Amino acid sequence: MRVILNRETTEDGKNLLFDHGAPYFSVTNPAVLDVVHEWESRGLAAEWKERFGSYDCFSNKFIDHDEESSRRRFVGIPGMNSICKGLCNDPGIENKFGVGVGKLEWMADQNLWSLISLDGQFLGNFGGLIATDKLLAASGFAHLKGVPPPIDMNVAPQIASRMKDLPARPCFALMLAFAEPLQSIPMKGFSFINSEILRSASCDSSKPGRPSSSECWVLYSTAEYAKKVIDECDAGLKKPSIATLTRVAEELLQAFRSTGLCTSQPYFMRAHRWGSAFPAVSIAKEEKCLWDASKRMGVCGDFCVSPSVEGAIESGLAAALKLIEMFVPHNNQNTGTKL
User: In Å, what is the CA distance from 269 to each residue of 54, 202, 263?
Assistant: First the structure.
């Protein structure tokens, strides 16, 4: 699952931070909770301690669910993508940002993976491979990128066949900034009940480590609304036009206003498409990841376990363990194989 931070600067110099991907994550798996506690100790994550619940658009009332209020919610510091950034800075990690992999080639004679970028650059040979892109073997990859999927279906047929055209539920996010707090909202995060357009709302400026000079909210659409808009503009997996995003922003804001919760005019407003926000299937619930031992290749992500950050972490841990189990003996022999 991608976790995204959008940083905006207004004309008067105000810094606005929005998590327009996953707004937070909760954890029930003890192994994942241990990882999160380690992130907390490093200052990469913190618990978001606020009041949460639901809002019924029929009765126009908030419902303070005990379960919603008691569930612990974690966020990255100062943004959701800070966790990934922090992990990328760990010792021994070599990063290549802004590079798309166009081809994953298995060199059987050398027992290595060769990676080629979208623009044809050689990225290196590697003894093991873990991929997290759910479009890895999807036909939609060609429609989106203009080139075939990076992996040949014949190279890892068992993995490729299980990843072909994974269904997902789309979502639109609307980032809003207000000069003053929305006094009629007693909660900092809530879901909508009986709304055809709105799914949930989060007050990002109430999260730990965020600027508080403005009140920043992110509204998330229902999957049904997002699919309707995408079908109407025939966007498919591609980025919607500015006109479409403007329309989405206006419709989400109007739906928010119709609840009576928002009477102020935001001084900043921008819509974002969260294209494949929530996987509609889990393809490796038992195994937690896909794994081809003969080629030392794994695939992990929320689409393997569950459509959540916790699901993505759990899947990543499983794939990492598979790779470690294969390479620890080689590492002990100091072969210098790259992973």
Answer: 23, 15, 15
Find the length of the chain: 339
Give me 108's structure tokens: 């059987």
Given its phi and psi angles, is residue 331 left (phi above 0), alpha (psi -120 to 50 degrees) or beta?
A: alpha
pTM confidence score: 0.88
For the stretch 33-67, pLDDT in tens is 999 999 999 999 999 999 999 999 999 999 876 55
Phi, psi of 299 (to 5 degrees): -130, 130
Helices (H), the chain: 30-41, 66-70, 82-88, 140-145, 157-163, 223-233, 242-258, 309-332
Which residue from 143, 155, 65, 38 is spatially nearest to 103, judged by alpha carbons? 155
The more confidently predicted of residues 297 and 144 is 297
DSSP assigned state of 204: G
SS3 content of the chain, % helix, strand, coil (to 5): 25, 25, 45
Both tokens of 192, joined, read 């909508």
pLDDT at 331 over 60: no
Report phi then psi at 187, rounded to 5.
-120, 155
Kind of pairing between the strands at 268-279 and 215-221: unpaired
Q: Which long-range contacts (CB under 8 A, 24 or more apart) does 129-132 make?
A: 129/104, 129/295, 129/296, 129/297, 129/298, 130/297, 130/298, 130/299, 130/300, 130/319, 130/320, 130/323, 131/104, 131/297, 131/298, 131/299, 131/300, 132/299, 132/300, 132/301, 132/312, 132/316
In DSSP terms, 291 is beta-bridged to 298
Summarised one tens digit per residue, pLDDT across range 155-176 is 888 888 888 878 889 999 999 9
* 273 neighbors 84 (Cβ within 8 angstroms): no
Q: Alpha-carbon distance 35 to 38, whole Å?
A: 5
pLDDT of amino acid 146: 76
